[in-house]
Specification:
Rossmann fold, binds NADP nicotinamide-adenine-dinucleotide phosphate, 282 residues, 12 strands, 10 helices
Amino acid sequence: MVTGASGQLGKCFQKLAAREVEIDWLFMDSSEIDITSTKDLRDFFKSKRIDYCINCAAYTNVEKAESEQEKAFDINAEAVKNLAVICKKNHSVLIHFSTDYVFDGTSKIPYSEKDLTNPINVYGASKLQGENYIRDILTDYFIFRTSWLYSEFGHNFFKTILIKAEEKATLNITIAQTGTPTNANHLAQLVLMLIKEKNTNFGLYHFSNSGETTWYGFANEILKVSGNLKNVQLNKDNSYKTIAARPAYSVLDKTKLLEAFKTRLEPWEDAVRELYKSGIQN
Ligand SMILES: NC(=O)c1ccc[n+]([C@@H]2O[C@H](COP(=O)([O-])OP(=O)(O)OC[C@H]3O[C@@H](n4cnc5c(N)ncnc54)[C@H](OP(=O)(O)O)[C@@H]3O)[C@@H](O)[C@H]2O)c1
């Protein structure tokens, strides 16, 4: 079962599912299951046996969350608690996604799962609360904290830069944050691998592509791989204002994941190139 199935990550799972036909997938978008509705969840779990609940539903508007605190916590925390309770009752493994924004960004080295969390915006606080509920209620769960997700689906920085490159001669992109862009397809592929091998190394993990950059560096790479660098003047911006505070540094240390799952992480630059070459133009 995949909740929030029409979101960016949900659609990456839908893409994978098309060729993983031996798995009985159930994709539920927000009109079919509202994760804040205990009734929706109860009715659904009553009618089906769910081995894995992949929760792609989330309140993800970081800026708006500052003025919609209650809604953000309802979806990212209270609904996640309901999901955890129902998964426990039905012996379903919960696979959930969280964020690098649980950290305050004061570190100078990548954050590990053991590092102290200290969110500096409402979105980060709501996601952390959701994580804590899962860790309190369940043993059979995977939580993947990830960062700067992009893909061919939904609204994301990768697609925005490609569109802006067509429209504008100059782009000013912030250098105020350092993190790691993550191809959402790679995250979905890892989850699929764990499901297929019935992996039981449950717990909290950090997942992103490897390396680090700024949003300016990310934009530069997108323009480079798409052949747009010669058409667009890309400037470093140090005065970009946001409503929500952002961690200045939020690179995730993936050592635990690499050791537990014997996998490899593609460098973020290669991942950007791979997505562009896969056919997405804008
Ligand atoms: N995007 C990033 O850069 C990023 C970075 C770090 C972590 N994450 C985490 O990664 C996960 C996937 O993010 P994403 O980029 O795929 O987000 P997304 O594109 O915004 O998708 C979120 C989905 O959740 C659905 N949703 C919202 N409220 C719901 C509710 N009450 N019940 C059911 N569905 C609901 C939305 O449906 P409607 O549109 O119909 O409301 C949307 O389809 C999230 O947990 C997010 O916090 C994302």
